[in-house]
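hiii so my PI (J.) wants the whole complex modelled not just the main chain, which honestly fair. so below is everything: three entries, each one labled with what it is. i double checked the lines twice but i was tired so who knows lol
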Amino acid sequence: MDYTYTLFIPLVPLFVFLILGLLGHKMPPIVAGLIGTLGLGLSAVLSYFTAMNYFWTSHVPETAYTSIKGFEVEWLHLTEKLTIHLGVLIDPISVMMLVVITTVSLMVHIYSIGYMKGDPGFYRFFSFLSLFSFSMLGLVLATNIFQMYIFWELVGVSSFLLIGFYYEKPSAVAASKKAFIVTRFADLGFLIGILMLSFNTGTFDFQTLTDPHGPAIAQAGGVAFMGMSVLTWSLIFIFVGGAGKSAMFPFHIWLPDAMEGPTPVSALIHAATMVVAGVYLVARLFPVFALGAPDALHVVAWIGGFSSIFAAVIACTQTDIKRVLAFSTMSQIGYMMLALGVSGYGGEEGLGFMASNFHLFTHAMFKALLFLGAGAVIHAVHSNEIGDMGNLRKYLPITHITFLIACLTIAGIPPFSGFFSKDEILAAAFRDNKLLFAIEYIVAGLTAFYMFRLYYGIFWGKKTHYHHTPHEAPKVMTIPLLILAFGSVFAGFLPFHNLVTSDGKSFESHIDWMIAIPSVLIGVLGIAIATVMYKSETAIPDKMAQSFKHLYKWASRKFYMDEVYLFVTRKIIFRYISMPIAWFDRHIVDGTMNGIAGITQYAAYSIKGLQSGKLQQYAFVFVSGTVILVLIFVYLV
Amino acid sequence: MIQNIPLSYFLVISTSMFFIGIYGFLTRRNLITMLMSVELILNSVNINFVVFNKYLFPQHLQGHFFMLIVIAVAASEAAVAIAIIINIYRNFKSIDVENVDEMKF
Amino acid sequence: MNILNLFVIIPMLTVGGILLTKDLKQSRLVSAIGMGFQLILSFVLVYLYLKERQAGNTAAMLFTYDALWFPSLNIHYALGVDGISVAMIALTGIVVFAGIFASWKMELLPREFFISLIILASGVFGFFISLDLFTMFLFYELAVIPMYLLIGIWGSGPKEYSAMKLTLMLMAGSAMLLVGLLGIYFFSSPDPHALTFNLIEISKAHIPIGMQRFLFPFTFIGFGILGALFPFHTWSPDGHASAPTAVSMLHAGVLMKLGGYGAFRVAIFLMPEAAHEQAWIFLILTAISVVYGAFSAIVQTDLKYINAYSSVSHCGLVLFAVLMMNQTAMNGAIVQMISHGLMTALFFALIGMIYGRTHTRLINEMGGLMKVIPFLGVVYVIAGLASLGLPGFSGFVAEMIIFVGSFQHTDLFHRVITIVAASSIVITAVYILRVVGTLLLGPIKNDHFLHLEDAKWYERISTITLVIAITAIGTAPYWLTDMINYSLVPIVQKLSSIQLTSLY
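here's the output for the full assembly
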């Protein structure tokens, strides 16, 4: 099967971006929207076709899925060994990601035609969306780690542009800056990791790197620095990059602020696609992690586990609905990271790998649905604050139903898809590390609790007084909701253990009821508590907040991580590094230069008296000089 | 006749003229007097030229020629100098050398 | 007739043409035509060069031309180009062309302005095509001198101070350079009657190591001052801040590159042993430049100062990569020179245009300009993103080549210093986004800005030329890097052939 055509999956959005970027301001808005949507639609069709082809049509049953280079071209020659290529790599995870990205992106495009209607930056919005889709598709199709880095940066900048879409709003500008700089800082780690990895293995290529008998894994042994091998160090550095993009602790601070962007952007970038790039990166290099550097994998697991519970606790206290969802995203990505971290390589050992990708897939569906639903709510009430909402189920019936489905899915209630994927993750964690399992088990309960807190806050409660009567979103917005709801319900039945596995071979996987039943139970418990507390306005939440005063305060202030960062950037970097350096430059370095000039000038002033202008003085000096010379020559020589 | 006068007499005369000229040049404030001092110096040199020529190489005439050149130079120098002095007088209303120090620094 | 001679003749003809003109309109037209020709010529040269290489010409220098100029000292007017100088010439052509359009409204003494500008440009062109050290130095001086007039007369702010400072510091550099060049000349051959200034011939000879140790710092610092080497960079912020737009563009875009080019072509190429021995000192200085420039830029409030410090940081990276002395890093250094030349020229052009509208360069006094001048705003964002190393623009390519190249050294010192230099990409992001955020985004701060006009056609020509060049290198860098790589091979061979005394 020839996969050269897959090249067009990212290229179509690129062309759309160029067309809209250069000519968009001359088009009527709806044309720009349609061009963007159609372009993405084309990519989506190509992706589905590729998925059909790769997973079923041209796959010989009972064999392992292999990775295929659909296209590759040399882009930049660096050293004798290292050359950057650009190309497309087709393998189970990239094809899965193609489907995820194009589906969610297409839904977001359609939804945005309604959501962004009347915005003066309509064409700009669609051109940025296309730029983002191009970068993200290029990222997942990368054949080598450097291509991934290139698109990684492009994804970062599209995210920057979209978060700062409302550029007249100072908070949006600040958020976009923060997102870019924090991820950029993490990318520095990624870059150093790439440099170390490529130097030691002599290649950027994923196929060579992840080959279990290849040079990368062969060099795994040895201790280089602080008790870990070079490979471990480089993978940890690479993971830093992934953690930055995926908003893992301690790089998560940009994600809640990123909600300043338009809601469809949050759905696409900060829930379904870009933020899972870190998971994808680890999954992409998974054989190297699992076979070459298990220590690095432990780091992944613990960072993931910690982030998931950290974010879940914060999510319980937030009042901005998009921020709740943002922390929920962080928590769910922590799940995925943890699943990768506890996984082994090959066959049933690779359960965590499969579970992680499975959860990535289902999460994309239900989280996009949650965000788009939240967008419909915000569209109706013009506020993000949970306090300004209530009793909306009468006004927004479709949004209500789809939102409920999404909440049940994320809470892991069967038969919705979240149940299956979360169950696999818990099973994988149970096998590897009981402590991590316990953390995830608690997080599952917390997730159900805060999601239903949100659900009841928006759609139930007493409040009925609105300035304008809220009305259901137009069809162009509700249809994507219904499609995604359909996906959320049924995605769980996909046989992921046959399709996306760590070594490409399918394995048998069953639902382990010993784990599934308790996890459903804690989900139900979380829902029940939320129902009691929030279904109708009661005093219980305030009492709870009172009794856990300190924890509540810390969690609602996001454990003061923002303050820590502000302290580091404003105080340390700005005040105690940059200002002194600038002062040093102006006063010490430049002062020295000016000082040298000053000394020259002073010397000139002090000897200028010799040039008196008095003729006779000159003549006297001249004559005495001559006399002295004569005396010297006569008497001394 | 001239051979009867020792060379040193001439040299004493020319040396005294030279140092009188130098002294005058360094101490006088009046530009005209200074110019006259310069002439004295030049003439002391002229005496030396002629005298050494006569005493050392009587068959040659280079010393005389050189004397003539010096006189010519002195004449033109006097002309230029007096022109400058007149101009200075016009500008400063004085020919005191102390006043003419505008060109310093 | 040799094509390289045209690079000196066309500016002379243009200057002659400007002398005949009467007012601004005519002189800018003549300059634009002349420099347009020069730009076309630069690309013709690139084309001819590639064709010649394709045809299998493997000589180190192509299109050579040699005329004896001053026989008793064996000074020649020797010309010749390789891939590196061809690339630098193309850069100069683009920046000068854009610079002419950026000074389209130069009301004060326009003829004199354009004449000085073009003399400066001809000096730069001459520098890049010279093979004779003396001729090279002559052109170098020709480029530096008009700078004094350009800043002193057409500048802004404390222009006399800045012009004097810039010229004096660069002259100090020239003085050191002259010592170095004369030293090289006197040791260019063991036979006192066969001394030569010719670069290629000297490179085949061997300068005694004792002399190299003495001459290398002179030559390197001499060029380094022009390349804004810490701590000799302080002329750069003051000079750039006071200079008129086109001069800042040319100066940061091209003239500072003479430093990097010379450090590489003369100092390191001719004195490799000393370069290897002393590289660590200068590596530390350049790494300081890179990080220090970036940190200084964070707290500046004047747009031109920000960009000047950013130039210190980026030009530091050029010298840093040159000192890494391997094929990849040096290639990166050349690409970085070109990339930075284009980006910083674009920045200064934009700053000039924004200043012409708002009459302030302090970012705190501006805000929300994206709304009123979208074209300039978008181009500024593009320039900013290019500067912070976004893929698709030239800065990314250059930085990545440099870092990968630098990382080929296996010892801890080089590794650590590479990571230190690489950390500048984060700091760069901080100050670029700070400027973009304050200047262009957010609410409009001053009602007076509401009526600003967007870019005029000549301003669009100026900026679009540069944007196209930046994007072209960023998306298709291979032709450029291949061209440079080919010419780097003999240089790297010479560097690696010498006996390395183990220092690290």
